[in-house]
Amino acid sequence: MASAGLGAFVAAPIFAAISESTGSWRIVMPIMGGSALLSSVLAFFVVRETPAAIGEVADGRAAQAANAGAARKPTRVHQTTDTWTVGEALRTRAFWLIVLGAALAVVGTTIVNSQSVLHMEDLGLSRVLAASALGITGLLSTLGRLFSGGMGDRVDPKFLLGCGLALELMSVVILQFAGTAVIAYTFAVLFGLGYGLASVASPALIANYFGSGSYAPLFATRGVLVTVLGAAGPILAGLVYDASGSYSLVFYAYAALSAVGVFLVLSIRPPLKAHATTPSV
């Protein structure tokens, strides 16, 4: 997950240079499609379903300790000991706030990925410079993901998710004024770190609050909703630009929504599962 941003760091300026040298962005599309197809074929042969398929266990623990069910180390981060069903999780406020936070983070990155280069070109930057700034968001998102993954057992991931959204909203406001290389790269650093923090924190919250038993369907539910909302972001941004001739409303509206999202994410509390109790005598 952490290395995903490296692709954007390498590919964005390369594709921008190809587009500029050929005078058309269309040649980039088959290159991207071919790369994705090749990656899919390689993944089919290389990726395994579980660590056990290659003689390993989750989190690199020794097999004997894993089989013996070794006690967890004490942690300040909530990790449920209850068994949650999908239906029970879907009825909690916490799950939907996690989805909201993840959706806002993804909407931000789809808007930035699709519109930021055009916006920076409108402000006078060259296409290659604007694309290199976009590429840096990918590199910094990798660092953000590594940091979020390392801190996730020490700091509640809701704080990492909230911090990620806060960095995204600040960077989008800065993007509005990205008419120089310094401002463009400042935007890129903040946005990349923010998205990296948020993208790892939301799956961790689902695992911490609802356990591993229902993680796959809950993560899939999150993924579907976040993908749909994320896809809507660039479409709405394009419509607003066509109507107003500016991205200002898009960026400020996203910043305002993310500000609300930060407060809602920070308000998340670990869900409590109702247990049958025996009346005292």
Task: Give a quick summary of the entry.
With 281 residues, the chain is an all-alpha fold. The protein is built from ten helices and no strands. The protein has one domain: MFS general substrate transporter like domains (Growth Hormone, Chain: A, Up-down Bundle).
Topology at a glance:
Elements lengths: L3 H19 L5 H19 L16 H6 L17 H5 L2 H30 L4 H25 L5 H19 L5 H30 L4 H30 L3 H19 L15
Helix pairs in contact: 1-6, 5-6, 5-7, 5-8, 5-9, 5-10, 6-8, 7-8, 7-10
Q: Number of DSSP strands?
A: 0
Strand content: under 5%
What's the tally of helices?
A: 10
* The first-level CATH class name: Mainly Alpha
Core attributes:
mainly alpha; disordered C terminus; Growth Hormone, Chain: A; 281 residues; 10 helices
Structure write-up:
This protein is mainly alpha-helical and 281 residues long. The chain has one domain (4-76, 87-266): Up-down Bundle (Growth Hormone, Chain: A), CATH 1.20.1250.20. It has 10 helices and no strands. It has helices at residues 4-22, 28-46, 63-68, 86-90, 93-122, 127-151, 157-175, 181-210, 215-244, 248-266. α5 (93-122) runs antiparallel to α6, α5 (93-122) packs parallel to α7 and α5 packs parallel to α9 (215-244). The N and C termini lie far apart (53 Å). The relative contact order is 0.16.
